Amino acid sequence: LGDNSAADQPNVLKGEYLNKAKIADGGKKQRKNWTSTWVVLDVNQLLFYKESKQETLSNLKSGCKPEGVDLCGAHVEWTTDKSSRKNVFQITTSSGNEFLLQADNYSTICKWHDAIKKAVDSLGKG
Ligand code: I3P
């Protein structure tokens, strides 16, 4: 099944660059600002790094920590009305933070959508 060790840990996806926009913080709308972000799916949280090399540095230096998104109680859904872009899904956290994630490649974004949804579902059953 190839070289993807994620097969051993079904809820964890290795880093990849996706387009990210935070559109609400604690329920309060924010101005949309799309940025390319290195995204890593951990068991119970999503990690946003500015760059791939920050992931390596964060293991060594405490000043390089990523933005962590708590997936417990989060909602994940495709959206066509929050953006003019294609292939966009939204994550809404239990604390009212809203993120859009997007990639031009459909299979890439599907892989992330499905894995994050699976992670959220398995935390719900916890
Ligand atoms: C926003 C920017 C975003 C766009 C957003 C605009 O303008 O063009 O890319 O979102 O549309 O408001 P600005 O840079 O001046 O803030 P999409 O690319 O996702 O469509 P929106 O207001 O309809 O969210």
TrEMBL record:
It comes from Albula goreensis. It is found in: Cytoplasm; Membrane. Residues 11-121 form the PH domain. Residues 1-8 have a biased composition (Polar residues). This is Rho GTPase-activating protein 15. The lineage of its organism: Eukaryota, Metazoa, Chordata, Craniata, Vertebrata.
